[in-house]
Amino acid sequence: MRLQASLLVLAFSLGVHPRTALGQGSSILANDMASEQGHFAEAEKPLLSAITEENKTEGDSHLLATMLNNLGTIYNAEGRYADAEPLFQRAVTMWEKTAGPQDLDLATGLGNLAKLYEREGRYKESEALFQRSLGIREQRLGQENPTVALTMASIAALYQKEGRYSEAQSLSGRALATQEKFLGPNDLALTVGLNNVAAIDEQQGKYSEAQSLFERVLAMREKALGPDHPEVALSLTDLARLYHNEGRNTEAQSMCERAAAIQEKALGPNDPNLAVSLDELGQIQQSQGHYALSKILFQRAIAIDEKALGSQNPDLALAMLDLGKNYDEEGKPSKGQPLLERSLSILEKSLGPDHPEVALALNDVATILAERQRYAEAEPLFQRTISIWEKAFGPESLFFAASLGNLGALYYNERKYDQAKPLLERSLTITEALVPPENVRVARALNRVAAVDVDLGLYATAEPLCVRSLAILEKPPEPDYPALIAALDNYAALLLKTGRKVEAETFETKEMVYKAKYKEFIKSE
């Protein structure tokens, strides 16, 4: 069990990955109806047979290119990227040879290859192909065209992964406006743009707006594709992540489990999209203290990603990050730190030193150092995290608030109250502006500020913060035990220091009860 001082560092974790916050809403682009419905094995066999026959009779034909592209799309949807890539490349070469460099089918092939590279973390190569595809479509179809808008939406999603959020927001808005102008309200082509806008809203803490859009996408996909389609699973995972961020863990877990079941049945046990759902489910379980179960989920996600995406992929690094955090929260930092350091190395190499996902790894490495009281080493890492988040999302985002809170907690642990207090107060102000008042993030932020005030003897200002924090934390049927225990300890200390010994003993007893419950809770895992 961690002491309160250590809890203050971790109490406001950064939460959701930017990766998952971006949404997974990429559409399957195969022309074959069986593949569009997720029946990939049924679609693969006749395509392979047709390709064999076409190779015998026609050679490099436009039809053969189409079939190769469709087969590549099936493999891509199944996570068989090594099999899909040469098919897409050959199709692109054939289309350019048979129809010329401005062919619309060529634009489709370029977009499919770009999407594959994006999934593999090859963002620069992906962007070049997307831009070429966009150029062809704009020249052939004009800028005010829904197909052009769909390509813009795909580029916007890529920009989000690259951490280019302002560009992504602008392009997403343009794309969605064009699509809504020309397409009906339930056209599946809208879902990519809607997902992009929802993800941006979520990043900015606009949860109600994001939820409305994610739910709209889910309803559209379920109606058009049926309840067991892989794209429905993508939406379920997006919505589960949002619910998790809002503290709605029961709903989030149910959605994530449904998503994983759909993906495993439709795509098999080794698909990278399944890894994303398993990772999100692991985060949900971890946040509730289910460390043994979350560890299994993270390890499985890592195994899938490493096999499908390679050893230097950002998604693999983020799954390692989660497993490292899991070990740390179990009280095993010696197992967690090597994973966090490897994750940081991969992310810095693949994404650059100032990418938001690098900030996630920096935060977690710094947290372990702070727990070991290696404050001088942790401080510059927290400061670097703050700088990255401010540049990426601005000074009024949840990520920025979390970073301020973590640095403030470090200063609190060092008893540098004059440095800790303004950071923690600013973190609380931002958090209260962005999330509902009953959210556990608010409770944690309240308790951190209260802890400083208690130590400074500012009991009159600290007490209402303690009371508000406890009111939030004691409400859920399955509480956030570490945060609740820290808040009870803090309030008991305040009561004792203000001469209310009997009341203090009441809260000390409650703290002991919750500690025992938490201990049993972890054992039950």
Q: Strands, helices and their partners?
A:
Layout: H1 4-10, H2 18-21, H3 33-36, H4 40-57, H5 62-77, H6 81-99, H7 104-119, H8 123-141, H9 146-161, H10 165-182, H11 190-203, H12 207-225, H13 230-245, H14 249-267, H15 272-287, H16 291-309, H17 314-329, H18 333-351, H19 356-371, H20 375-393, H21 398-413, H22 417-434, H23 440-456, H24 459-473, H25 481-497, H26 501-524
Helix pairs in contact: 1-21, 4-5, 5-6, 5-7, 6-7, 7-8, 8-9, 9-10, 9-11, 10-11, 11-12, 12-13, 13-14, 13-15, 14-15, 15-16, 15-17, 16-17, 17-18, 17-19, 18-19, 19-20, 20-21, 21-22, 22-23, 23-24, 23-25, 24-25, 25-26
Based on the model shown, name its key terms.
525 residues; mainly alpha; disordered N terminus
